[in-house]
Fold each of these.
Amino acid sequence: MANKKIKKNVLLIFSKDIMYNPVIYKLAADFRIVFNVLEAKIYPKQEGRLILQLEGTEEQLDEGIKYLKDQKVKVEILAEKIKRDNESCVHCGACLAVCRSDALQYDNETKMIVFHSEHCIACGLCEMVCPVKAVKTASIDMEI
Amino acid sequence: MKDVHVKKSIEEINKKIKQGKAVVVTAEEMVDIVKENGVKGAFKKVDVVTTATFGVMCSSGAFINFGHTKPKIKAYKVWLNDVEAYAGIAAVDCYIGAAQVQEEDPLNKVHPGRFKYGGGHVIEDLIAGRQVKLKAKGYGTDCYPLREYEAVITIHDLRDAFLYNPRNAYQNYNCAVNLSNKTIYTYMGVLRPNLGNATYSTSGQLSPLLNDPYYWTIGVGTKIFLGGAVGVVTWRGTQHDPDVLRGENGIVKEGGGTLAVTGDMKEMSPRYIRGASILGYGCSLMVGLGIPIPIINEEMAYFTGQSDADIYCPVVDYGIDYPNAINRTLGEVSYQELRSGKIKIMGKEIPTAPLSSYYMAREIAQKLKDWIVKNKFTLGIPQIPLPTVEFKGIKYDN
């Protein structure tokens, strides 16, 4: 089980004192993490923000994230930031039409819209379309 | 309706309900019952099939009477939480439409607009017992001197609050796609360019009028589940059109019939009536509606036994065709295909998303079944039939 690969989507915030340090390549070079840039915003001389999908064993991800934190990068796990109010959700499916990842899926047995927050890439579209405002997503611009 | 042969009357069924002997199943359960017992067997076995739908239904709203003020006002302008209600009815009567948007809303000035709050939300807030700001303007008459009135009220302060929806429960509806090359924001949800996705919006095999395709049992006076309370069918809905394309099984393959419905908001639950904001389109109301269908003959057993695999809807382009009123369909798909998560249109496989909640519809059909079985909810006897078309017969083996 220890070698099982998992995926984690993270928001990385580089404050201005570290934003020009080369850090990310180490995830691949030293920790053998496969990373995929999902979104990036750089405000020159102020702050850099990145949403990355990290893929590796749990141990590799833990060590990689620890390394990022040691380099003073602020790390937010996206799955922990995204919330769906299950009391409010009516399982209509409007969000399904816009979801670009596999985070939202229709279960044809229970007829529910199932939310897998670990696959969410925080694009924010489901929050925008939810007719009953049951979703609170994270986005690259979120206040931390 | 002279071509309808009633073998089991609603009166007989009501008698069985009162005796606790009626067999009541949901339209979903009926599919399997007909498969196992055949149409004739199912007719003998089942008395009532419950159907339901839960989704955004424009052409909804509420008549509100806020009671006479002291001194009296003849309100000619009324707002509830800054959403204007039509006040040209009487001194303290108004009608709040689900699609009316709150004053000062930026609408689609920054596209797509969010439409955060509107008439549908006022209706939900009232039903939930939340406080709502009432504002009224009068022009002053000898009998109604007051010119301005403002109060914070809840539904309990209102003399009457009736949900009155002129068009609900569309029999069938389009599956929407987008052939244009830009993302569009429609009442059928967000549609991605170049056939990027498809949306659809009925509860298919569970939907009321798909189970009674010729309106033999649903008519003016039919008692229904509306927003968690007992409501009634008050007329055919606006745009009701029985004369549409039908399959060999008699079931409509496009829009078709609609219902006008009414119920007392004071008895409703916010679980089954929800305000809705539709990105780039506007405000509306999600309505939970259930209808019990008496199995008066074998044909009704046949109809209610039809499954998602037997029910089709047209695929319509909302990118170019629909806004330009070009009547064209790109093909037809079954609800079974739609519920599988992908359909094939013009040679391309595209993902599908529902817009009405089958999950909630299922809950309502179940609840209605419980009402009939446990609370002895009897069926309303239609006083005036809905306009229909000639029934040309259906074929079934047993």
Amino acid sequence: MQTEPFLSVRGLKLYFRTRAGEVQAVDGVDFDLDRNRAVVILGESGCGKTSLAKAILRLLPRNISCYSGSILLKNRDVMTLTEEEFRRSVRWVQMSLVPQAAMNALNPVIRVGEQVAEPAIIHLGASKREAMEMAGNMFQLVGVPIDFLTRYPFELSGGMRQRAAIAMALITSPSLIILDEPTSALDVLTQANIFNVLKRLKKELGLSFILITHDIATSSELADEVAVMYAGQIIETADASAFFTEPLHPYSQKLMASVPRLRQRTELDFIVGRPPSLINPPKGCRFAARCPFRFEKCAEDPPAFRRDGRQVKCWLYA
Amino acid sequence: MSQVGLDHAASIPQQARPILLSVQELQVWFELRRFGFGHAGYVHAVDGVSFDLAEGEAVAIVGESGCGKSSLMKAILGLYKPTSGRILFQGQDIHQFSKERKRWYHSRVGYVQQDPFGALPPFMPVRRILEEPLIISGVKNKNERMERIRKSMEEVKLSPVEDFIEKYPHMLSGGQQQRVVIARAMITEPKLLVADEPVSMLDASVRVEILKLLRALQERHNLSVIYITHDLSTVSYFSERIFVMYAGRLIEKAPVHRLIDHPAHPYTQALLTGTSEPDARNALSYKEVPPGEPPSLVKPPQGCRFHPRCVRMIGGECDVNEPPEFTVADRHTVSCWLYK
């Protein structure tokens, strides 16, 4: 019934002012996300993927020098809202965040249940009793025993704390959840269990996810779509099945070739050099200096070229 | 021949290589005290671990956090005293060494830490970081020390040396920091390298570079390597054998490809199921992994320590008797009653 995407980000920019200069952490990011879909933002450390999450949720530090672009959420540009409107009607109400290392960010002296209930009290105006009841329901949803509500964070294992952090993001029943490296500090089996929970939530509650990670192999557990980020820009977007079988951008190809696999005996590849500084990024294609297919054209900034419903920011596909 | 596709050093016959390190029935327990005194039990961090490591052999110890792999490693490094059992290095018990001899042992064993930034002293330049082990192991001549520093930096590809030698750790990238850590471990020309999750803090593209570097060093110096990790997907790139550790014990030992293709223990099978490969089909199904978490090491479960989470648990056997090691194939042993 609706043709417009659920979330549509256009030309999003987020620059920081630092002593060394202006850091262009997010530099013109475009992507769409449909309802009940999950997009994975893949990138290495320092590519701006966490800044992108913060920019979408408008969780900004003070040293911002540029914050522009449009974020259409259900056809409403949330960038035009005032801070107070944004807080009341968007953040945690329509989209919430499971921040990086959330499991270690729980307050050690407050019971887990109270922390999980807090967003419901603040954003939904629930009473403490109602909120605790909701927290109990959320715990069941993510697979934490109910009696853990009255425990302190140190009494929970890493996996349980991560589930509690997810419960906290779920309690206000938002339709979009942004997950920033949700399992990178967890063990293999715990990781698999958490992804099972996320898959179930997606299926049962019809949630949309933005999953931000550097872990390509586990990202495929949830991905419907993939967006690869490099030096503050999204350089490729594609359907997950297309991306994991045949990445198009040279950077994506190199990245996929560097993923260790259990059963494949191919030699691993790695990318020579380091990503450019985001303070003065190169003028043309930002990957050009490390790219094996570089040619003259790469000195100019490539637009996003369309190919079979995918988008690649690379002159090879012009 | 069950070992299909085994590459590099694994093809050298076993008997050709002398045993470098032998761990025998090792136990490392930590006492728990109540109110600072009064006995309150033990943490059975390592509980009966035995294995032999040949010269030039690379093994991986795979296990989840809290399974005791770090305690095992620290006992091998001589940092923890075993509660019982022995660790023999070239036939000599390392915990019987005199102070002098211990210093010699420490120069024979290199240690690569998990978090390179945390492992490097922030106020020392690279030159000083690499010089220290040489001073301690008694290299008196300053010129010789500088010569060896240069050589080891070139070996880990921190070149041109001049660009890095006076830098402080925070001025280096994660991959470069890890190279300094490796250079520091290698500078005393050890026989054994213990690498504790050496790539888990690094980005995907750098990770491969460091793994390749470690493998090159291992081959060039005929090093024995103990590679400790929780990530099964990286082990096949440079280990010959895998030991799977669960709740303080080694529950399965096998050559790498044998273990990946024919895992015997239900826990190993679960670990392999839990390890993702980049494949879009993953998103379509749930993973069949056991619920729950590893047991407390204060009071590990009776019998097989995995039985409370095991789907193939045999009542009256697994929850009562501790399984011994059964041999299922050449060089492949497993501690599980299913293979009686």
